[in-house]
Design goal:
Number of strands: 13
Helix content: 10-25%
Order of helices and strands: EEHEEEEHEEHEEEEE
Distance between the termini: 17 Å
Strand content: 35-45%
Largest sheet: 9 strands, antiparallel
Low-confidence stretches: none
Number of helices: 3
Structural class: alpha+beta
Radius of gyration: 17 Å
Mean pLDDT: 88
């Protein structure tokens, strides 16, 4: 298991940004972020093509032990992008918060990390997978995924942003 860093929060200015934050808005806490990261649903994942152009697709991304796990077919554009340049971002809306995670993805190949990823996918998405060498295998996958087995990428956040969808909290940035 990884040792988690304590994130440092900095509130973002609302001046001139049209955020409509209410007068009684409170700071958003890291525990609020983590609670939303542990939910299921699709995330918008952006990686960089070899020419630097963004590549954005909906993905499953499961939070566990301070990292996000995502799975991808070996020959998929996402895998090729991450193998060349691990910089990426993941964005989604959950329970009144727009969240953006910026980080660096590395391929998980050791059994312990793959088991953690498998458990995270099961916990978050009820998607049973199993370790098969340096990938995860499954009885099924998303129709557009190309089918199992899947490479697993571990995204270590460098910054996390939370923006209010309805003005109920102050926008913030955490660095890890």
């Amino acid at each position: 298991m990884m040792t988690q860093q304590t994130p440092t929060r900095r509130e973002l200015s609302t001046e001139g940004r049209g955020t409509g934050v209410t007068e009684d808005a409170q700071p958003f806490e890291w525990s609020d972020v983590e609670q939303r990261l542990r939910t299921g649903g699709f995330r918008w994942f952006t990686s960089l093509r070899p020419d630097g152009e963004p590549h954005t697709r909906p993905v499953f991304a499961a939070w566990a032990d301070g990292v996000l796990f995502t799975a991808s077919k070996e020959g998929a554009r996402k895998s090729r992008n991450l193998d060349g340049d691990g910089r990426c971002s993941v964005a989604f809306e959950e329970d009144g918060a727009h969240l953006v995670i910026e980080g660096v993805a590395t391929r998980a190949v050791d059994e312990e990390t793959l088991r953690r990823a498998s458990a995270a996918f099961d916990d978050v998405y009820s998607w049973p997978t199993r370790v098969a060498g340096d990938e995860l295998d499954a009885d099924y996958g998303a129709p557009t995924s190309g089918g199992p087995p899947y490479r697993v990428y571990q995204i270590t956040p460098t910054a996390v942003y939370a923006f209010p969808a309805g003005g109920q909290f102050l926008p913030a940035r955490w660095t890890l």
